[in-house]
Write a structure and sequence with these properties.
Nucleotidyltransferase, domain 5, five-stranded mixed beta sheet, 11 helices, globular
Length: 346
C-alpha cells in the first residue's frame, strides 16, 4: 500500500496568508490566467481571471451543483477542461476548516516565531498540538501606536484539511495557494478604489456572515456576524401577506429592520475600534458582497442606518468581464474570485 502523503503548512512572512504545499501538489506557472476554486456543501465554484499589470478581467464564473454528482467528479471535470494539473489553481477553503484568532506577538526572534505561536495556540484547540496546522500573518499599523503587537493566527486540524487535499490530488487539481475566506475577501476589496482610504465589506452567507476592514491591500480587522441571509429571508417570509409597518425608505419592515440592526451595530463597533485602535481616519465606504439570495432593500437600509455610503459590490463594474454576471453567480463564486485575484507573489 502506498504511503499516504501528508499536508503540511509553514508560517508565511508579511501580511499574506499562504499555506505552503508539498511539491507533489504544486502547479506550474500559469501565465496571466489564474483559476480560483472553492467548495461548499452544495457545489463547486470556479473563477477564471486574467491578470493584467494593474487590472483584472473575469473570463468565466461557474457554479456546479453536487446534487446529482460528487465533488470529486466535478473537480476531475474542471481539471480536465482547464488543465489544472499543469496550470494549478488558488483554492479558498471554507471557515469550517479553520479558526482565525488574534494573539499577542511573542517577543522572540523571527526564526522562533512559529514555535512560540504554537504554544500560544494550545489554549484555543481541543485536540493534540501536533495535529494543528498553523499559519500567521501580521496586522499593519501597530508600531506607531506603541501598543503590544498582535498577529492573526490561522489554526486548522490536519485530519480535517487532509481529505480536501487528497480529493484534489485524486482529481489532478494542482493547488498553488490555499487562501482563507478573510484573505479572499481582502483580495476583492483591495481591487476597489475606496480601499486606498479604507473600506469595510459585509459578507452574508446563508446562516453566518463576516465583516472585514481593509486599507491599501492590508487586512486590519475581521469580525464574525451571527446572521445570514437565511434568517432575514425567513423573517420576510413570515410577514408575507400580512400588513406590516415600514419606517424606512429602504422598504424593509420594522421586524426585519430589527434583525438587520445586529449587522449595523457590529459594523459601527468595528469601524469605531478600527479608527481608535489604529489611529486612522474613519471608514467612509462600505460594500455589501454579492448575495446568493438577494434581499431587496438591505443595502439601502444599511446605508441609511450606518450614515456611510453603502454599495452592493458588483463584479461587472469593478472588473472587466467577458459577459454580464448576475448577482447570484457572483455570490456563489465570491470566494473563488477572491482566491483567483491573488497574485503569485502574495
Amino acid at each position: 500500500m502506498a504511503k499516504k502523503r501528508q499536508f503540511t503548512v509553514t508560517a508565511t512572512d508579511g501580511a499574506s496568508t499562504i499555506f505552503q504545499l508539498p511539491d507533489f501538489l504544486r502547479g506550474g506557472a500559469s501565465a496571466a490566467t489564474h483559476f480560483g476554486l472553492s467548495v461548499t456543501p452544495d457545489g463547486v465554484a470556479c473563477a477564471q481571471i486574467l491578470h493584467h499589470d494593474d487590472s483584472f478581467e473575469i473570463l468565466d464564473l461557474r457554479y456546479l451543483s453536487t446534487e446529482d454528482v460528487s465533488t470529486l467528479t466535478l473537480l476531475k471535470g474542471l481539471s480536465a477542461q482547464f488543465k489544472l494539473a499543469k496550470k494549478g489553481c488558488h483554492f479558498a477553503i471554507p471557515q469550517t476548516l479553520y479558526t482565525l484568532k488574534m494573539i499577542e506577538t511573542p517577543n522572540v526572534a523571527e526564526e522562533e516565531m512559529l514555535d512560540a505561536v504554537r504554544w500560544k495556540v494550545k489554549e484555543h484547540i481541543d485536540y493534540p498540538l501536533d495535529e494543528a496546522v498553523i499559519d500567521l500573518f501580521s496586522i499593519p499599523g501597530q508600531a506607531e501606536r506603541k501598543r503590544p503587537l498582535m498577529h492573526y493566527v490561522v489554526i486548522s486540524r490536519q485530519s480535517e484539511l487532509q481529505p480536501l487535499v487528497d480529493e484534489c490530488e485524486a482529481a489532478e487539481v494542482a493547488i498553488k495557494v490555499i487562501d482563507i475566506q478573510e484573505m479572499a475577501i481582502r483580495n476583492i476589496t483591495a481591487s476597489t478604489p475606496e480601499d486606498e482610504n479604507g473600506v469595510a465589506m459585509i459578507y452574508l452567507g446563508k446562516r453566518l456572515g463576516e465583516l472585514t476592514i481593509t486599507r491599501q491591500g492590508e487586512l486590519y480587522l475581521s469580525r464574525d456576524l451571527s446572521l445570514g441571509t437565511g434568517q432575514i429571508q425567513e423573517m420576510i417570509d413570515s410577514l408575507s401577506g400580512e400588513e406590516f409597518e415600514i419606517e424606512s425608505e429602504s422598504g424593509l419592515a420594522l421586524e426585519v429592520q430589527g434583525l438587520v440592526d445586529k449587522i449595523v451595530l457590529e459594523t459601527q463597533r468595528s469601524i469605531d475600534y478600527y479608527t481608535s485602535h489604529f489611529g486612522l481616519p474613519p471608514i467612509n465606504a462600505v460594500f455589501v458582497a454579492p448575495l446568493v439570495d438577494p434581499i431587496d432593500g438591505l443595502t439601502a437600509y444599511l446605508s441609511e442606518s450606518l450614515g456611510i455610503i453603502t454599495t452592493k459590490l458588483d463584479f461587472n463594474t469593478l472588473f472587466a468581464v467577458s459577459e454580464a454576471f448576475d448577482e447570484r453567480i457572483q455570490g456563489q463564486c465570491l470566494m473563488a474570485v477572491g482566491a483567483a485575484l491573488r497574485r503569485d507573489e502574495g
